[in-house]
Amino acid sequence: MRKLPVEEFHRQIGKAFVEIADCSVVAYYSSIEEEFSKTRAQPVLIDRSFAGVTRITGKDAGSLLHRLTTNEMRSLQPGQGVVNIFTNAKGRIVDVVEMLQRQDDYLLITSPGRATTLVQWIEKYTFIEDVRGEDVTSSFALFSIFGKIPSGFAGLPLGDFPLHHFLETCLNGVDIILHRTGGIAPEGYNILVGSKSAMPIWDFLRAHAAPIGFSTYEMIRVHAGIPAAGGEINEEQNPHEISFLPYIDFEKGCYLGQEVVARLDTYDKVQRQLVGLEFEDERAPALKTPLWADGEEAGKITSAVFSPFRKKAIALALLRKKFAQNSLRLIARNDKDSLTCSVVALPFV
User: Fold this and answer.
1) Which of 66, 96, 190, 225 is the most buried (most CB within 10 A)?
2) Fold adopted by 1-269
């Protein structure tokens, strides 16, 4: 089990913990509902060091990454970033990453537990190219700030750069990477800092934002309709199905899986669609619970939480396209339960 850089803090005041990839992660400090309510009035802070970080170097790194991903990234300059999708030969998702180009390397923020997998994937397609990949997850702490963030927050130059881009700067005398995130995470900012300097930065940020746990973060993510690894993002899905079209450049040249991804678009062959579901009561169904409409299987639950806004359970689900109709009533049924829900538009809020 990998120990997070500020895990001692979490252990001292965390009320519950969950296992994410190879980490024990705080679920909440006070209560999920109380933490969630703070996002409407103030900035909140989460330790997302459970995510992976991969470093890619070598003079051919840019060209190889371009041939393995769906989005245009050859025009990136140091300080710029992009969300990119690694797909396999069948056009299915290997991982979705936030790609940051620095002066001499690329940093890829991966899904939890996927950093080494991504290094191995890149190595699989490295032949004569000068490219080296390294899982550097343990070298960094990753803190994220969401919610209602005021200008001048913690003295940081927020808003001075576009979405997905970043600044290498200092915070409280410590070198950090300040990254503007959104799309595959709730809109806000990531702060990457060396593991050995993590605790002072965490304490400094905690003076300006309220800490939240992973379960609260999941509540924010589902309300925003954002796909995540394990539920919506895996090698069973293609990017079309989970609304990742903004991260596909249909004008770029060939990449692994490009023909399949393009054909799905050209011939309208996408079979499933990511939707929101609202249930009739507070109970959230288990993940992968089948959904039914008039005795026909319509899809499966991929994420589910309780919504303090709606006082009901809400969920993300992958439905067969003919069932992806707003207000359509479905039944989530397994061996233990049967729950009624309706299809709703994303995002929830």
Assistant:
1) 96
2) Gyrase A; domain 2 (3.30.1360)
pLDDT tens, 23-38? 999 999 999 999 999 9
> DSSP states of 268-281 as a string?
T---EEEEEEEESS
| Count of other CB atoms within 10 angstroms of residue 349 | 11
The C-alpha atoms of residue 284 and residue 312 are separated, in whole angstroms, by 8
Mean pLDDT of 198-211: 97
Looking at CATH, the fold of the domain delimited by 271-344 is given as Elongation Factor Tu (Ef-tu); domain 3 (2.40.30)
- Is the distance from CB of 273 to CB of 241 less than 8 angstroms? yes
d(CA 157, CA 170): 10
The structural domains of the chain, with segments of one domain joined by +, span: 1-269, 271-344
Residue 218: the pLDDT is 96
